[in-house]
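Worked problem 6 (solution included).
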Amino acid sequence: MNKIVLSVLAIVIAIVFFVLGAGLGIFYQDQKNNSQPMSASSAKLLGSRIIPSIMVSGKVSKLEGRNITIISDGDTAVIPISDGATVYSFISSEDSSQKESDFSQIKVGDRVNISLKWLQDGGFVGETIIIIP
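Solution. The predicted structure is:
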């Protein structure tokens, strides 16, 4: 009788390990698929006129040339800004009007929204910057 119990226990343990192994394999395969580079068709769509821009929002943590480093909820991104980018700032927190500003008006610590244009090569560039009071 002990041999039968041990055989059943061994089979149950083997099934548990098989299920765990299959589950981990599916999980890691899914992780691999999620990290693949963007397809050419996706890059083309993002760079088309159908999607005019993508918005990035956060606090300016660093300014270096025409690059702005944005931080938001612990995530950081370095955004290259085009030479012809338009910069706007709100007059005050009570007044929702905007005025056109200059790139030099952006300071570390400012909250900004940056409209990105996706480029055909898969990169992006900031086109419009709104400084939020």
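Discussion: The mean pLDDT is 81.
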